[in-house]
Amino acid sequence: MLAGPTAVGKGSVATHLSQHFPEVWVSVSATTRAPRPGEVDGVHYHFVSEEVFDKMIADADLLEWAQVHGKARYGTPRKPVEEALARGELALLEIDLQGARQVRQTVPEARFVFLAPPSWEELVRRLVGRGTETVAEQQRRLDTAKQELAAEDEFDVTIVNVSIPEAAEELVELMRSFPPECEA
Q: Which of 42, 56, 176, 183 could connect to 61 by a Cys-Cys bridge, CB 3.0–4.6 Å?
């Protein structure tokens, strides 16, 4: 599992892994939020309605789910993860803190990696710099990020995201060193 605060680069690291490390299978989360410019359904997220998400919860189709930043819901579809693990693939779930805590309860043998920013100032710069949220949303996300950063010690390993390629390489090396039943 890969988790960390908003704007730390979880999605960018996961995308880099998908593009440069074909041996790593990266889960695609479902979300109720609208796509950002350039996001593709089924590639970046499975964009679903509130009703579809409710059905996924009711049918136990999600390994974990959470409402993030007091707004949209995100979750990891269970079946693709189980299939990737059954094939013996290195599997990565990019999830938030709430989701990581849920998975820790249901899959305690999994390995949990915290992606940290080099500094608080850099995290703020990244969030503001991407220009995809209103000022109010940025503040809400930064408030949540403080709580997420405080949870770093709940994770097995921390990687500081100074650069996407370096963080991805470090993560793949960790994943290769984990026993097969303990993918990130």
A: 56
pTM above 0.85, yes or no: yes
Confidence band, pLDDT 50/70/90 cuts, at residue 184 = low
| Angle between helical axes of 135-150 and 120-130 (0-180°, round to 10) | 150
Going by DSSP bridges, is the β-strand pair 46-47/30-31 parallel, antiparallel, or unpaired? parallel
Contact predicate 91/23, CB 8 Å = no
Helix or strand run (H / E) with residue 52: helix 50-58
pLDDT digits (tens, 9 = 90+) for 8-38: 999 899 999 999 999 999 999 999 999 988 9
The total number of structural domains in the chain stands at 1
14 CB contacts (<8 Å, ≥6 apart)? 2, 26, 92, 94
Pairing of the two strands 24-26 and 157-160:
unpaired
In whole angstroms, give the CA distance from residue 168 to residue 68: 24
The CATH number linked to 79 is 3.40.50.300
Cα angle vertex 43, ends 42, 46, to 5°? 35
Q: Which domain holds residue 147?
A: 2-182
